[in-house]
Amino acid sequence: MQLKPLKGQHHVSAITADAKRNYEFYTKTLGMRLVKKSINQDDTSVYHLFYADERGNPGTDLTFFELPYAGNTYPGTNSISTTSLRVPTDDSLDYWTKRFEEYQVDHDAISGHTGRKTLAFRDFEGQRLMLVSDENNEGVSGGVPWEKSTVPTEHAVYGLGPVMLTVAKAETSAQVLTQLLGYREVRSYRSLVEGQPDVRVFETGEGGTGAEVHLEERSDLPVERPGRGSVHHVAFRVENEEELRGWVSHLKQLRIPSSGFVERYYFKSLYFREANGILYELATDGPGFEEDEPFETLGERLALPPYFEEKREEIEAKLKPLDTKE
């Protein structure tokens, strides 16, 4: 079958050591909605929390695995080094600057160095984040802000923006993006680190902030040692299961090691790791997060895919209680 271009970001999954503080920061401070409180399906003793727009539309999810004993992150190469979040306008960045000062969130000044207005900041564990203005954006559409958010709709986070990959050898990752995944290299901008190459920008599908990967080569850094505040993997969107199975076959034909087809219930997935150590996931747009919870109460109870339901009592006994009811 002829594979269609990837549609852009699906989700980014990161690591936290404190689910309670993580929930408070991403819902109360950032105003995102917790659309699913579930478990890491590969380790059911820890939470997997999904923050997104009003219903977890594809391209809006920032997710966290809780690893209570995770140590500090030591930043470096082989990493997904910045996750950006889309906001509607340049004025939104002024709103967020004031909000970050009010909430004592570590942040930088508003910048235009990437070609768009951005505001870099860190959460309480040093997670490297950036707000990106969609004021002049054309391309894949964002999600729908939740009307009960703590942030006004006109300034709300409503999707994932570009992800930054920091690697030792950019050309290796560039070939994966263009020759395997079908991305287009569209522009570049100057690195903030003197003596380092320009950051290269790749896009897929309709392009725009929700479909870009920024590739940074750094010769001055060691390999990242991940921990709390680091990113585990980035996922890109495919239309449906048929398309995903096409990718499974494609990677198999190319003899690229992968997970093969993986059932995640809320979506279907495929994972593979490239030579620079970046873990990629391809994930389907559906079925979505309303398979087992109504829209009105998303994220309020521990949601378990059906194949874990018979172990609910055992799973809940291992988890520290986390109250997520509004």
Word description of this protein:
The protein is an alpha+beta fold. The chain has one domain: 2,3-Dihydroxybiphenyl 1,2-Dioxygenase, domain 1, CATH 3.10.180. It has six helices and 15 strands. The protein has an eight-stranded mixed sheet with strand order 2-3-4-1-12-15-14-13. A seven-stranded mixed sheet has the order 6-7-5-8-11-10-9, covered by helices on one side. Strand 14 and strand 15 (279-287) form a beta hairpin. The longest helix has 13 residues, at 90-102. The termini are far apart. The mean pLDDT is 96. One of its GO terms (molecular function) is dioxygenase activity. Residues 8-134, 159-285 form the VOC domain.
What quaternary form is this? Answer: single chain
Biggest sheet statistics: 8 strands, mixed
What fold name goes in the CATH topology slot? Answer: 2,3-Dihydroxybiphenyl 1,2-Dioxygenase, domain 1
- Going by CATH, the architecture would be Roll
Given the C-alpha coordinates, what overall shape results? globular
- Which spans of ≥5 residues are poorly predicted at pLDDT below 50? none
What is the CATH C-level name? Alpha Beta
Contiguous helical run count: 6
Structural class category: alpha+beta
Number of beta strands: 15
Number of structural domains: 1
Whole-number radius of gyration? 19 Å
Query: What is the strand arrangement across the widest sheet?
Result: 2-3-4-1-12-15-14-13
State the separation between the terminal residues, measured CA to CA. Answer: 46 Å
Please tell me the overall pLDDT. Answer: 96
Domain VOC: 8-134, 159-285
InterPro entries: Extradiol_RC_dioxygenase (IPR052537), Glyas_Bleomycin-R_OHBP_Dase (IPR029068), Glyas_Fos-R_dOase_dom (IPR004360), VOC_core (IPR037523)
GO molecular function: dioxygenase activity
Protein name: Ring-cleaving dioxygenase
